[in-house]
Specification:
The chain has 418 residues and is an alpha+beta fold. The chain has 10 helices and 6 strands. It catalyses: ATP + protein L-histidine = ADP + protein N-phospho-L-histidine.
Length: 418
């Protein structure tokens, strides 16, 4: 079943409403500066500088890589200073303040960032002093510094939140693993008790009933006595078989599958969306559990390396296989990696688990776009394989399915998950 859908995930090349609004405000300020500039030549120069100021923001926030984005910011700041001097009664201060706000996002914390902010702030204060003709204009430097400082604090808060989100994903995965391990241990204990007590007792009862029946037959007892003894022995034998089956079921325990992906996505601490399409096929419990674990690992990787990005989980059923794609959109603009590192064996374990289920795993950067994508392909039983031996169906129903589930909250460097 074909579907086309769009997720508004963070993308440096996608202009959001907020970004378009900011660009419109900048254009309006530049238009005011052009009108305020004296003379046609000056107006033309201010117009070109306004275009360069806007271009610098676009370059720094949408086009240039993170390690070169500072050049776009410097272009905006320099253009703003020039506009301020050419059109003193215009709004050339706006590009300078915008550049001062973005500058901390483009320079790593340290002496270089502090020096850059100080130079911009002092230069802004001197420019205001010159055009106002008053030494009190130097106080404007405090405003520029304050804006840059608030931006730096906000970036630090975002980085800390990203780290917390990544740690929450790790904690949730570990919690589920411990919970399942504890449940498996408890099932094992109950299975041992059933095996050691109930199964042995039933087996002993069966032997005793057979012995009594043999003695009764040798002594010439009537069928009225040997018949019930035979039925009682048969019930004891069936009880032994049922006890052994129950012990085996307890030791195997319930496994999670494709049906549980909705709960997994909903509990993801970052932003995640699930999309299921097609007619669910027949998937063995082992294969369903492998898919669940692979998606869980892919979500955890996204929380580590693309924190802040919306993660898309697509599940597509067809006649021969189920395809699951987990894709993030990479780090949002101005964000740094969470700093939480994996063990380095996640993808390898994922591939081994899916391989045992007869499937394949492909992982790598998204072609033509930001982010990372993990794709799973697992074969399903033919649709005609129905009946007692077909195995349980790992799907939400027998008919076509099309729906979505969203995660609980907003979940930021592209790179291979581990």
């Amino acid at each position: 079943m074909a579907n086309t859908w769009l997720v508004a995930g963070p993308d440096r090349r996608r202009f959001t409403g907020r970004a378009l609004g900011a660009a419109a405000v900048m254009v309006l300020c530049m238009a005011v500066s052009v009108v305020a500039a004296p003379g046609a030549a000056t107006k033309a120069a201010v117009g070109v500088l306004g275009f360069l100021a806007e271009l610098g923001m676009v370059l720094s926030r949408r086009i240039l890589p993170a390690d070169r984005a500072v050049w776009g910011v410097l272009l905006t700041i320099g253009s703003g200073f020039a506009i301020t001097l050419l059109a003193p009664i215009g709004l050339g201060e706006i590009p300078v303040l915008v550049g001062a706000a973005v500058l901390p996002l483009c320079v790593p914390p340290g002496p270089v960032r502090s020096a850059g902010v100080a130079v911009v702030a002092v230069g802004f204060g001197v420019a205001i002093m010159v055009i106002s003709g008053s030494a009190t204009g130097l106080l404007a430097a405090v405003g520029a510094w304050f804006i840059a400082d608030r931006t730096a604090e906000h970036a630090e808060l975002l980085a800390e939140r990203d780290r917390v989100v990544a740690l929450l994903a790790e904690v949730e995965a570990n919690r589920l693993a411990r919970q399942e391990a504890a449940a498996a241990e408890e099932r094992g204990r109950i299975a041992r008790e059933m095996h050691d007590v109930l199964a042995h007792s039933l087996a002993g009862l069966n032997l005793q009933l057979q012995a009594v029946r043999a003695v009764a037959a040798r002594e010439g007892a009537s069928p009225a006595l040997t018949g019930p003894l035979e039925r009682a022995a048969e019930l004891a034998r069936e009880g032994v078989q049922e006890a052994r089956a129950a012990v085996g079921a307890l030791r195997a325990g319930p496994s999670r599958g494709v049906d549980d992906l909705g709960t997994l996505v909903h509990g993801f601490p970052g932003g995640a969306r699930l999309r299921v399409t097609g007619r669910p096929g027949l998937l063995s419990p082992e294969a369903g559990h492998a898919v669940y674990r692979a998606v869980q690992e892919a979500l955890t990787n996204a929380a580590r390396y693309a924190t802040g990005s919306v993660v898309e989980v697509n599940v597509a059923w067809d006649a021969g296989e189920v395809r699951v794609a987990v894709r993030d959109h990479g780090l949002p603009a101005g964000r740094d990696p969470s700093g939480v590192q994996g063990s380095g064996s996640g993808l390898r374990g994922m591939a081994e688990r899916i391989g045992r289920a007869g499937g394949t795993v492909a992982a790598g950067p998204v072609p033509g776009g930001p982010g990372w994508r993990v794709t799973l392909r697992v074969p399903v039983a033919p649709a005609a394989a129905t009946g007692p031996g077909a195995g349980p169906a790992e799907g939400p129903g027998a008919g076509p399915v099309e729906g979505s589930v969203e995660g609980s909250a907003e979940g930021s460097a592209d790179g291979p998950p581990t």
